[in-house]
Amino acid sequence: MALPKANRLKSRHDFQAVFREGIRRNSSHFTLRALKPARLKEPSLDAALPITNLASTKIGISISTKVSKRAVVRNRLKRQIGAALHQLLPNLAPGWRIVLVVKTNAVESECVSQQFLQELKQLLAQTEVFDGNS
């Protein structure tokens, strides 16, 4: 299952911002880059309680041709990673911009979906992206 359009990181500008300013975490198959949400303060009636607006979390997946020369293999990996991220989406805090870079050894992985899901959970927990940091 693909990520909803509201949760996709699309523009080159957004990808560059995440790579330039985001924090980095590594695992055996992925490098996760995450940019914390920018909180926008709005004027409110009570100055002690500012209202914050946060957009939905946006996620991009980057797979180089170094991972595989075959587009079929890269697209299959991207779909499997997207399905794993789709399961984790309700637990993510709003406003984050995340880029997941797939490493070359991800192609050789046997039990792809469960292993990817477990690694993604660990990376997101290390980055404190989970809502409530659970």
Question: Layout of SSEs?
Answer:
Blueprint: H1 12-21, E1 23-26, E2 30-35, E3 40-42, E4 51-53, E5 58-62, H2 71-88, E6 97-102, H3 112-127
Helix pairs in contact: 2-3
Distance between the first and last residues' Cα: 24 Å
Q: How large is the share of residues in beta strands?
A: 15-25%
The run of helices and strands is HEEEEEHEH
Strand-pairing-aware structural class: alpha+beta
Q: Indicate the CATH architecture.
A: 2-Layer Sandwich
Number of helices: 3
| Uncertain runs | none
Number of domains: 1
Strand order of the largest sheet: 1-2-6-5
Rg is 16 Å
The description of the largest β-sheet is: 4 strands, mixed
Q: In the CATH hierarchy, what is the class?
A: Alpha Beta
- Rounded mean pLDDT is 84
* CATH topology description: Ribosomal Protein S5, domain 2
Helicity level: 25-40%
Shape: globular
Give your account of this protein's structure.
- The chain is of the alpha+beta class and 134 residues long.
- It has one domain: Ribosomal Protein S5, domain 2, CATH 3.30.230.
- The protein has three helices and six strands; from the N terminus they run αβββββαβα.
- The strands form two sheets. A four-stranded mixed sheet has the order 1-2-6-5, sandwiched between helices. Strands 3-4 form a two-stranded antiparallel sheet.
- A hairpin with a 3-residue loop joins strand 1 and strand 2.
- The longest helix is centred in the middle third of the chain and has 18 residues.
- It is globular.
- The model has no long low-confidence stretch (mean pLDDT 84).
